[in-house]
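User: What would this chain look like folded?
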Amino acid sequence: MLTLQVINADPEGVIAKLAKKHFDAKAPVTRILELDVQRRTTQTERDGQAAQLNKLAAQIGGLMKQGKKDEAEAIKAQVAAIKESNKACDDKLKDIEDEIRNILLTIPNMPYDIVPEGTGADDNLVVKSNLSDEVATVGTWHHDAVNDEAKVPHWELAKKYNLIDFDLGVKITGAGFPVYIGKGARLQRALIQFFLDEANASGYTEIMPPTVVNEASGYGTGQLPDKEGQMYHCNLDNLYLIPTAEVPVTNIYRDVILDEKQLPIKNCAYTQCFRREAGSYGKDVRGLNRLHEFSKIEIVRIDTPEHSDESHREMLAHVEGLLQKLELPYRILRLCGGDMSFTSAICYDFEVYSEAQHRWLEVSSVSNFDTYQANRLKCRYRGADKKTHLCHTLNGSALALPRIVAALLENNQSPEGIHIPKVLQKYTGFDIID
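Assistant: Here's the prediction, encoded as structure tokens.
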């Protein structure tokens, strides 16, 4: 969440920046400023009372030594009255601080200046692609124009080659929970191991976290209260199934003070992810396009403010390298203010082109959250100045499997079968699905 210092320093600037996310911050920012004045006034009053109590305590001690018990008792009555007033100040401070925090939790992160203006996906900026600028923008590129009419979507290929059974998933659980079979399961496992090996080679330490988290973890990374309706909630124990490994991995550093020499911290994790995806329907959710349970490898960094931009660039290069090795057509977009998440300060999406569906499929988001998550988490580091500072947190998908699998099946189909990219063949043990 935003810090009081940032809001106090430039409230109009905060309001203007949040307008890029189409969030009207005037009312909450005004209320926070009012409450902060009350907080400081009450704190000053309480500090004065504390000083007075110390002074009176010293007087009581002196009077008792002099045998002036009656005078000491009179001062003790004053002390009791001040302590009662002191408790009222404490209660008032807690109420004020609770209200400030509750309001801050409803305010999204401020976007960086380079984030483009816009209201939705159509306003995102294509910054790079392995295709020409024109086709990357309009999305009309086809890998094999001669045979393009023969391309079929991945859900038909999955049925033809007995790779994924969507109906069986409905029987066992419900829509959005596919069952991977035979070479489909092996392809899934191959991708997981490939992504983990690549992360390890890039210096990421693998974590195997829980896939269920408590409420504090959800608040720490910003899933709560913003995305509560999108998460599966275990009501009896008040626990949540994770929407991404970002949540448990980043929360490792909740309430932790790191040494600056430890930074940047680089972690990766493979987990199952669970998202309710309430309100999703239509062709965009067919097959593997949008699932309630899916596999994903996440990369997470904890860094200093001075180095986080460099970390972000390195993470983008890592994800791009994966897509290049998989030989997939891709593009990178800088998200506009209206399409960014609640918590990110800047975000880049990676999309791969689906030949059979004639559309781009998002496969990764790589975000820098600045100090927003760290302030919620109380994730800090001690610098060379011996003072504590808020860290920057970053994360990205490297990669989410469902749409990668969809693109691999659709883009690599041929009359002979579905060809496996060379980089995956040592993991799958086969070079074609036929």
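The longest helix spans residues 26-65. If you want, I can go into more detail on any region.
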